[in-house]
Batch of 2 targets.
Target 1
Amino acid sequence: MEKVTLTIDGKKIVADSKKTVLEAAAENGIYIPTMCYLKKLNPIGSCRVCLVDVEGADDPMTSCQLPVMEGMVVSTKSDRVIELRQLMVKLILVNHPVDCTVCERSGECRLQDITYEFGISRQDLKAEPVERQKRYDWKLIRYNPYLCVLCERCIMVCHEVQGVSAYKIKNNGFRSVIDTVDEKPLDCDFCGQCIAVCPVGAMSSGIVLQARSWELKKVKSVCSYCGVGCSINLDVKKGKIYRVTSDDNIGINNGNLCAMGRFGYQFIDTEDRIKTPLIRKGERLVPASWDEALKLVGDKFKEIKNSHGGETIAGIGSERAANEDNYLFQKFFRTVLGSHNIDNSLNMENSSFGSGLFEKFDLPLINSTEYINKADVIFTVGADACEENPVLGNIIRMAMRDKESRLIVAGSRDVGFRPPPNFRMVYKYGSEILLINGIIKAIVGSQESGVGSQKSEGIKEFLDFLKNVNLKDISSRTGVSEDLIRTIASNLSKAKSPVILCGREIYTHPRGVEIIYALQNLSNIINGNIILYREHCNSQGVNDMGVLPDMYPGYKKVSDTEAKENFEKMWGVTLPVKSKVTTTNIIDDAIDGRVRALYVMGEDIVHRSHNGGHAREALEKIDFIVVQDMFLSETALFADVVLPSASFSEREGTFTNMEGRVQKLNKAIEPIGESRADWEIIKELANKMGGSFKYSFAEDIFKEITAAVPAYGGIIYSSIKNNGKVVNYQAQFRKKFRVVQQRDVESIGDSDMPFILLSGNTFFHLGALSRKSVAMNMLTPECMVEINPSDAENLKINDKDAVTVKSKNGSITIKTKVTNKSPQGVVFIPVNFENAPVNALTNKKDAVMRVKITKAEQ
Amino acid sequence: MKVLFSSWNDEIIDNRGVDPANWKDAPILKLPAEFDKGNNITAFMGWSGIILLKDIINIVDMCTRFIEKVQYESCGKCYSGRIGTAVMQKLLRKIASGEGEEKDLTQLSALADNISNTSKCSIGQTSPIPILHALKYFRDDFVTAVKNKKPVSNSNRYESKWTAPCYAACPTGMDIPSYIEFIKEWRPLESLKRIREASPMAASLGRACFHPCENNCRRENVERAISICKLKRFAWDYEDLHSISKPVNENKHIKEDKVAVFGAGPAGLSAAYYLAMMGYRVTVFESLPVPGGMVGVGIPQYRVPKEVLQREADFIRDMGAEIKYNTPVGKDITIPKLKEQGYKAFFISTGAHLSKKMGAEGEDAGYDGFVRGIDYLRDCVITKCYEVRGKRIIVVGGGNVAMDCCRTPVRNGAKEVTVVYRRTKKELPADPHEVHESEVEGVKYIFLAAPKRIVAENGKVKGLECLKMELGEPDASGRRKPVEVKGSEFIVPADIIIQAIGQDCDLSILNGVEGVKLTKWQTIVADPDTMQTDVPYIFTGGDVFNGPLTIVDAAGNARRAAESIDQYLSNSPVSLSIDQKLDKVIKKLGAYNKDEKVGKKAGWERVPMPTIEMDRRLGSFDEVETGYTLQQAIEEASRCMRCYQIGMVALEKTV
């Protein structure tokens, strides 16, 4: 990078030629006051507070926008600029009500600070007052134009970082205010970034802050929603969380949060939380003491273990629980109950993305998002980055802005991106492998040498296979034009550091593994990296911790006698020899009567299973069920004992995100009611059953984890700070080509069921927690089936009409959302609504359902 | 002109108290006398000061009205512009209403000075200037207003409008600072939307515009003008290269009236676009198989690729204009026949596609190896390039067509290309950038030489006999006229001679039409404000009206003509709006002062346009310039100083 030498306030400075004067000054400890400037945004230049004088120029200039130049002589403290800066602040105070006593931003207000800093105690300027409209009709965002300084940070963060571009300046001159672009009530991502960046109290949360800023203590934690693992602060006063905030430059989110991260915390303290243990008395679950409940569980487990063997007791761990909870959960099963019969939902649905992740695939799929930051081409496959993992969307967007990364979005739904991607491919569901093979063919076909000379395993067979791949045929079967396939191939082949992102659609796909194989071939050819999304905050950790029927922590096989010996040594017990009895999963086993007791921690299997009816049937058959959760989930309704667990904010522990980054939870408030951290409950139970679990703190468990899981080795709990610690999976990877043939996905349905049913998370909801958050339910209150406009027209269905969706397995009645996101012949139903369970329609893991849609009877 | 008072461009002319017969002259001021027919301009206030023509203005009132306009137009994007001018407005209104105090004058003056120093754009920076001038040179009027404690007289009519140096220089009236700011803010699509308000031809203009805006850019006073032209291309390319659904025309065909447009060049396509956007049913008749007119067949592919032009035309088609290619007019298709078919208005933009003669012996002899520039370029696009491989080429002429004619054979494998021009390099009318690129590509020049005779053997060109020239007195164009040096004949050997010294118009479209006047250069006469000919339903624009001129002039004519056609078809008077009249006044006065000292730090150089390597240029017609990347475009756009400024006229009559 080119360097220039300049002088600021008499100090000689060498700076990178792409820097601004403000940045160069800051790097050298020279303070220039600012108001509208924000590091993560392009300079705005509205406040004029950062004015400096430059030798050779008559006018003062804003240092935030002024590039450094060779030989430049800058003064940041001339009398003139000091006076002008003062004037700028005085001008804001012309119409700014000095209502600091009732303003919720008081104490963390840039205007307060700068007025004080500049020593402004009075100002004589006046303008004719203008009436402005307060906007309290924007759902979770409130805008008070009287407090607004029109710095435009909200406009820019919404545009540059969030890609929504919801705001504009309305009116001219003194009458200017912020408004939505269409001047209708705000309809956006509700990420609240505008609130986070507002320097004053103009933008505030719809969840009105009922504390003064200086009363709030910020407790660092990790968001408990998706697998991105954003760093957050829980702002606490007297044992209550008042809001969630974030710090720029901390964590992978750079201060960005999505709606769920910022506003979805209300589940922590709701009426719905289970406050005491519950024990079934006939039809009812009635409150009980911990002693009573744990004794009952312990006795019952002991009884079943003694009479039927430990393996008849099954356990389901949680993608939402901390590593410490999951580790102790499996340890309890293996050492106390003598059972390997444990699993987690992700692994149960498709073990290749759970226990098999490091064995099944040739290339690493758990990769740092740093690859996105550095990518020149980003290829997302079956991923809706704007809605599924909005902060990942932010990361992609920053790469597009700062690195000019090209974005290619491919999916069976037209999910798009904001700003528009360079290319968009909507393919027919089930034709992914064809498409990827087609792209590879187009790349290889245009590269005469290179690929063929590679020495990688399987290359010859693969190239032979490619010979028979016909682009024209692929185009007609995927619905993607030959031209587009070639263009995308050319973009991918020219990329220097491409990254491929795979979303939920892929890891829930019946052909998910083969799709990844095909993408690995592509990645091998273009020298890319693949990143796999993780749905929940600890989807990765629960597998790392060995909540798996066939693997110990660290993916050590249960059948491996050396591993068994090592763990026996570490845990001081004799471990059961046999792995899980069957190859089917716990639910199927239960239906077959092989499960006597079930212990479910932080999971709602009725809701999560691909077949809700099947899960219910299984639960009916089990003699004794223990559910440990924050809420009385549908699964909990089947329980004999319910144990209340504490939320992530009420305890310590760690989550491992989609990158394999271990991040720490800190205790912000006391557990609600009598709830306890999951690990504490397990510990008590284990000890009641004769175990010897001697852990006082989460840290003690973590220490054991670092010994048990080699990838976590060397991480010291107390040293896990802001950016966490990245786990080193030490897996052996190799460049290997595999011939991946297209196999059509089985589709189940009658001849009068024309639509392919897809499902996934809807915006503003994920897992069980968002549905317990008032704010999130306000944003997306109900389940809707998404349908293409022309399909809707053919069926004479309007937007928001109630329809009945019927499959071979069942039917539900919900409203429609008519949208181009769904291609013709495809409907999408979110998985998030227990009152409209899409798993009432689905019944088979490796198939796709076809459905019929009819207007519901009024 | 003679004025009562002027502080324009820092030059003080003060004739107050002097007998009008003895008023000092202000030669640099170019304010038109009339605003409307019979309504004189009495004063002008704006970015650079005050001009008073008559002593009937109350300066306090005028300042108040001016700052009200400023406050009304100020964009709200900086504290000083937004709030500072509101404070000034309050002070001025207080003084004008007779409630002012002496100390208000001091505060006003200090504030005006500071706002000028701190504002983000030139509205805030320049608008305090006339107020400061007024406070300085008309202090008594303010003191009187304060002392009298009575409202000042306010009987004058004022009209005001924003402008900018680049905007005022653009024939299409494009809001340049705004589209550049959108690019700076990473909003290329909004930028394109703004560009399209003034021209649908962002792809061609962004590649091949003569960019008078850049010659009127205040950043040139600092170091180098903003790359305004190429930023436009960036906006268009962004839409073109991304997976974006193009805008839709919500007014498509909402009107029944049919309009015929002749020629699918920049004028024809632009007119068709605006008429289609207003809901008219437009048909464009084009004799060539490709769109773009002279841009399509005159400008080579390495500057404006054919595919780009086609996509640009297709966009206009999608907005609702039917384009009929391969459809010559004048014989089977004539204005009277179309009129019978229900067409209500006609826009003639058939361009200037006939080669002018150079007056050299043998040019009509049909020698093998003698080609007319326009035909040469057109054949290259439509049929096949004239074979030049290994040959020596002479191009006669020095305009942009000559540049295209000399850079094309370079790409087709010519051995040597020489341009013969009768004046010197300084007088070359071609875009200097084009001249530079031709030199980079190896083109040689012979200056001060005029063709006399084509040397041929057996009907084949062997060379060009030239006469040496020297420069004499300036001619009507202001350039020194070349004069022959007697007996200075010399022969330049050549295998092919391409003559490119100018074009004439083919006017067969006027067959069967009575009443349309022509100039002595055989171009169509029309009202330059409205583009209406003497036949009320016939309008014109582009080269057939201007003579061979620029794309942007053609596009500008077309935008005006479309408005006029709309006025004509909705039975309104075909005339300029008040804003357009103000634009005319400002244009005449000059919105840009090349001698102005702009107080910014110099040294933020223009971002160079990336180009392809030399080995890819020779032997291929690949586009030479590859366009700015996003980062480059944002940086270049960040150099823009947003030189918006406000001008206000006072008028003699209030109606």
Target 2
Amino acid sequence: MKDFAALFTAIDQTTKTTRKTEALAAFFRDASDADRLWTIALFSGRRPKRAVTTTQLREWAAEVAGVPLWLLEESYPIVGDLAETLALILPPARSESDKPLSHWISVLRGLHGAEITERKAAIIAAWDELDATERFLFNKLITGGFRIGVSQKLMTRALSRATGQDEPVIALKLMGGWTPETTSYKALIETDDPAADASRPYPFYLAYQLGEPPESLGPATDWQAEWKWDGIRGQLILRDGTHHLWSRGEELITERFPEFSRTRDFLPDGTVLDGEIVTWDGSAPMPFSTLQPRIGRKTVPKKLLREAPVILLAYDLLEQDGADLRAAPMAERRARLEALLDGLPEDAALQASPVLSFDGWESLAALRSSARARRAEGVMLKRRDSPYLSGRKKGDWWKWKLDPLTIDAVMIYAQQGSGRRANLFTDFTFAVWKGNELVPFTKAYSGLTDKEFTQITAWVRKNTLQRFGPVRQVRPEHVFEIAFEGIQPSPRHKSGISLRFPRMSRWRHDKPVNEANSLEDLQQMLAAYGS
Amino acid sequence: MKPVLTFTERGIYCPAGDFFIDPWRPVDRALITHGHADHARPGHARYLATKAALPVMRHRLGAITAEGVDYGTRHRIGDAEVSFHPAGHLPGSAQIRVSVGGEVWVVSGDYKTAPDGLCEAFEPVPCHAFITECTFGLPVFTWADQASVAKEINAWWAANAAQGTYSLLAAYSLGKAQRLLRMIDPEIAPILTHGAVEATNAVLRAQGYALPDTTHVTAGLDVKSCPGALVIAPPSALGSAWARRFKPASSAFASGWMRLRGVRRRRAADRGFVVSDHADWPGLQAAIRETGAERVFATHGYTEIFARWLHAEGYDAAVVPTQFGGEEEDDMPVVEPADAEQAATEQAATAHKAAPETSDPATSAAPDATVPYPTGQNREDATASAPADPDPDDATASGQTDLDTGPNTGPDRR
């Protein structure tokens, strides 16, 4: 594990992408196939099936360290990472070893079905021969979540460099539902037949938010515009007589949306569509809140299917008759998409997301300002002659979202963040006035600079009124402008409303607390913009 | 029996001797444990500190009325007998022992138990009640021995120097910087220093603390003539215009917080070295044990957790809210006026006062509670009378607002 620990340290110690890529490429050149495969798996969010629970890990670590469990639990939120907390709290190892990463993974896999005492003995024995970094990584193998600043893009580049294969080829090979248990490095990376897996999706092309006026994009006639829907991005694949649905996070979500099994009746094999999954009232999308229960459930009760039916608003055709269309210009893909979907019955749960007709940027700006009424978040702009790229690339696709709604609110509770934000107060609860009372209505975590978080952290430490576990009630003294994308009624909340994507857009040093907004103001926004 | 020391809104107070220890508001007579800005504040009428601590205090606070005492010597103030004992925190730092009618209380100030080769080594002082800091009072904080950290720093510098890359090491200008100078390989040269560091170096050298040769980075110094040099600067200088003259550079922080990966990443330096002038978890336990005290007051740091632990260990433990900590406790806060140290440099090290390392005490709010309370009791109250989450409803709201990541990795949105 020393080489893997060295790789981790090299990546963790630098913020420079080039250094990370170099370190990773060097590892891919030198490591064994088994270690290569598992490294790819771990850095893309896969992990060996959990052999012990995190509760057991905590108990065993506390026991070995000779500290009470509560003390370990109190340390955890401060460290911000369980695997790290355990690694730090354990006494130094009494011996040393250098077994490969894949060895430790087989150890963990071997624990399935073992007696609990045997599992415990194996874990404790492992801790006792690993140094601090190795131990942290070993714990990560169990708890999962290797967030160490290795993006899919970076790993793709490193593999490309180590193998001499082109990046898009590697990117395609890494997509899909492969598991390290059922494939090998050779099969995954070295074979030349990525299409062997019929479920394999194409890497999504992601848009940037438009920061400049649209005039900066050149003539409006070069651009196709669509509504930017407030749903979840999905890729629908019809191949080999079956269908698969992928989320943008590369999660296979076919089972959650049984509506799409019918698409096989209407569309030919060898079709891949990119679009937005939205709940549909028969003529328009329903609010995102109605889609939420659908996302969380692996099996869908009939009642929910009836109340919150979904459709795919398709906006791109990536594959037709088994041929990859991504290099074709947007305009051509769009024409083929429309021809393909033309005349589909309503119960096909599939429609083309309409193209907006506009003459000139001004007329599009006017359309955009009506987006909320159309249950959209703004408009999407796509260059008519552009291919379908992979990943987030600037230039051909832009999202041009509506300006957010804002309200001035008072901070009343604060909680420490975790991970990179451990030890800083970053999670806040905000309130608005209802008469003389402050009513909490939202939480927000983001939007401030590191410097502002540091400032507010020092302030919270000195102005805590009461503690409830990790949560501190603070003096109601600071006003923040909260920006959000949408507002909905919510009987579950004390305030009766819930916000979409709330974040702190500004620290209103200039505003005294009594000038913060009121619940009435929120209710008026709900009446005006709520859906 | 009346308590030897009480906790007031101006700081720790001794009624029998009518003096304060490290007060945060102006008082008539202040006993000072050490020269860090959160302990030695301006505005007191009379100061009392160790002889070794005074030069730095005078340097930082300007013209003060101060008296210096030797370690270990007992002095009478009113009905109290006081003495100063090495705290091992930085040169001249002390614990203050106060004895009234045979009852002995000790205020630790900031301390570390492991000797660092520069300052007077920590000495346990037997007492009935011990008022201890617990900046790093969690079992996740244990320090490796100084020699092995020195090796890491030496290796980092050597690798940089071999490539002509500057090694930019951030450390507090009083204490940490000088300790590092003593820790590292004496062969390392040249060593360049920021004005705030060099000013303190000069004060300590004049007192007889031996430090390796350093070169103050002034406008007239051509840094290009010393590629691959080690540069020591206060944390606020990193990322400033001052630091940009060193190119290419590898940056590092030396602090106890570097033990936590989250903090290391947030600082966005290339390296983090775990070097602290505070006691680690085993150090705190040992120090408390060796005092033989039955009563322990936890001041700055993870006070609630630490006091709960002590309580479980059989001590009569309580939490005392103080305004100490800021030098390290607040997570190496950028709380220090960001450009103050830098400004101080521009005016050169000859300036009378170096910039403060903590926030202006005048802007800090007064503590709400001044009376120590049994921690166990307080925790129970908190959990019994209040919900775990201020607004349980809002917990579900976060479920909604976090949807971008969805369940597991979650279906993402474009």
